[in-house]
Amino acid sequence: MPENVQMVWRILQDAAPTYLVGGAVRDLLRGVAVHDWDLATALAPESVSAIAVRYGWRTQALGMRYGMITVIVSQSLSLEVATLRMEGDYNDQRHPNQVKYGVDIVQDLGRRDFTINAMALTWTGSLIDPFGGQEDLQRHLLKAVGLPTARFREDPLRMWRAFRFLSQLGRDWSLDETVNHAIGELAEETKTTSYERRREEFWRILQSVDPLPGLNGLRNSGLWSYWWSGFHPSSQDWKTSERRVAQFQDPVLRLTALVWCCDAEVVTKWLTQGRFSNLVKRRVQSLLAIRRVDWTVLPVQEARSLARHHGVDVLLDGYKLAGSSANPSVTLELYRLADNPQCLTLACSGQDIMAWAEIEPGPEVRHWISLLEYWIDQDPVRNNRQALQAYVVQKASNARKFGR
Ligand code: ATP
Ligand code: MG
Predict the structure, then answer these.
(1) What is each CA distance from 138 to 124, 129, 219, in whole angstroms?
(2) Domain covering 1-139 in this structure, CATH number
(3) In this predicted model, which residue has the larger pLDDT, 244 or 95?
(4) Could you tell me the distance, in angstroms and rounded to a whole number, from the CA of residue 113 to the centre of ligand 2?
């Protein structure tokens, strides 16, 4: 456990019983690296806040209303501190109507989603496991705390979480029969879950060691169709997507591989609706824009032009996604450009062009830039000031002479 986490835990524990909970306990018991530390404390949120102020911890209190405070222990590490609580009815299927504090740890664990996530560790190292989480960890079984139909009705995101955990935990894990059955029955209820929350779980599936169990689960259970109704791949197309997805680690490449056969505009609409970041959206769009490139016959000069337009990284990824072998000179050129991306930038400025061509600022400058870029793409050696100047002066003088 990182020292900073231990220090925060100790300070809170000195004030009131405080437990390690959630994914951290699960992952410690599984013997895998913990990336996310959650504490549950008997202290009221205001007391946690006051302690944080006293010790000079940076905090975020976005979830304060629901008893949660994020303590930022270092640049790359933050800690969720939640006050022990029970939740009342769920009005909007996300936030409970009321949160009741002053409950004990077992009651707090009872509001959690799956048994393997409903264990706590005390400061002295005892495990509190009222729902058989440890046994389910051994059996590799994802089981709900309580009745799955009731728990999924309260918060339908839990169905997405089930598939996210399948992808993270590995192929030898399965859903408990009652969980499976409840998802089949209640898939439609996720319509009311915000796109952000579903996207977050979907993204975690794409980041998992093995995204396929999660993706297949979403598709087969029908959850997917309430998220992106425009995506109905045939079994054959889905198999092809699966094979493609499995070849990549990068979540953006996995995502692009999944929608490889879809209309680009439909994909963009979906990514917007699903609140994907602009960065992800732009990368997927660029990759889809170059998917028709025939790499086996692509001339090197065109590869340079595409690289300038979309970026060398996108081109290298697009080439991987296409899964075909490129003309070797294209491959070599892309690697060269990846090491020297400045080669794609003209070795002169717009001011230079205006002076050499004797023109005023305006659209004509843009036209010259395109012309020069085309010219250097035919032979990158031309990309030096002298050669560019000679070319512009000559061409401009010809144009004046012949009235073009
Ligand atoms: P990870 O290690 O990937 O962060 P995690 O299990 O810690 O997984 P979180 O989303 O960080 O998952 O949530 C922390 C804990 O809070 C969970 O382990 C679970 O006990 C509880 N939890 C989170 N979301 C829900 C939910 N929608 N319904 C019930 N309990 C939840
Ligand atoms: Mg977590």
Answers:
(1) 23, 13, 27
(2) 3.30.460.10
(3) 244
(4) 12
pLDDT at residue 367 is higher than 70: yes
DSSP H helices, 290-402, are 300-310, 312-322, 328-339, 350-357, 363-378, 385-401
Proportion of the chain above pLDDT 90, given as a percent: 78
pLDDT at 107 (0 to 100): 95
CA distances from 45 to 50, 107, 184, 386 (A): 9, 18, 38, 68
Domain boundary assignment for the chain: 1-139, 300-344, 350-401
Side-chain-side CA neighbours of 163 within 13 Å: the count stands at 30
| pTM assigned to the model | 0.88
The pLDDT tens digits of the residues spanning 292-314 come to: 999 989 999 999 999 999 999 99
Q: Which ligand is nearest to the CA of 198?
A: 1
**From the centroid of its chain, how far is CA 9?**
29
pLDDT at 301: 95
Ligand closest to the CA atom of residue 161:
1
CB-based pocket (< 6 A), ligand 1:
22-23, 36, 38, 112-113, 117-118, 155, 157-158
Residue type for 211, please?
P
